[in-house]
């Protein structure tokens, strides 16, 4: 069962305003918005921030989607409706944007996140209501 909670969230520690959105906007184009290209581009952009996006105590997910929609002018629900990999959400295997290696030299990997799709769905609902 999926529950949606509306609460006052803390500010996001990631400054999504100044990130480079061309990874999405250059590969996910209308009018057809091909799912394979759009979902791959979305994952390339979002997976490095999966922990922050899935933290429901912050406004990271809604902030990220606001900027994605601002720069890409995508139809509501595009990524939530097209990008599905299973009941656990989208699998992220990307490295951190700021550190490709940890101090010990091992690679930093994002874990698959079951909350990513819930967060995406929540954001889509918010955008539909606006």
From TrEMBL:
It comes from Rubroshorea leprosula. This is GPI-anchored protein LLG1-like domain-containing protein. Residues 14-90 form the GPI-anchored protein LLG1-like domain. It comes from the Eukaryota. Pfam families: LLG1 (PF26578). PANTHER family: GPI-ANCHORED PROTEIN LLG1 (PTHR31533:SF2), GPI-ANCHORED PROTEIN LLG1-RELATED-RELATED (PTHR31533).
């Amino acid at each position: 069962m999926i529950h949606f909670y509306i609460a006052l969230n803390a500010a996001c520690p990631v400054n999504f305003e100044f990130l480079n959105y061309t990874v999405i906007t250059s590969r996910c184009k209308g009018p057809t918005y091909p799912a394979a290209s759009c979902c791959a581009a979305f994952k390339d952009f979002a997976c490095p921030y999966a922990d922050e996006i899935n933290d429901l105590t912050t406004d990271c997910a809604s902030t990220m989607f606001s900027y994605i929609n601002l720069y890409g002018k995508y139809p509501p629900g595009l990524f939530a409706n097209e990008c599905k990999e299973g009941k656990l959400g989208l699998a992220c295997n990307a490295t951190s944007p700021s550190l490709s290696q940890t101090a010990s030299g091992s690679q930093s990997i994002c874990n698959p996140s079951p909350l990513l799709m819930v967060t995406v769905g929540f954001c889509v609902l918010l955008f539909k209501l606006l």
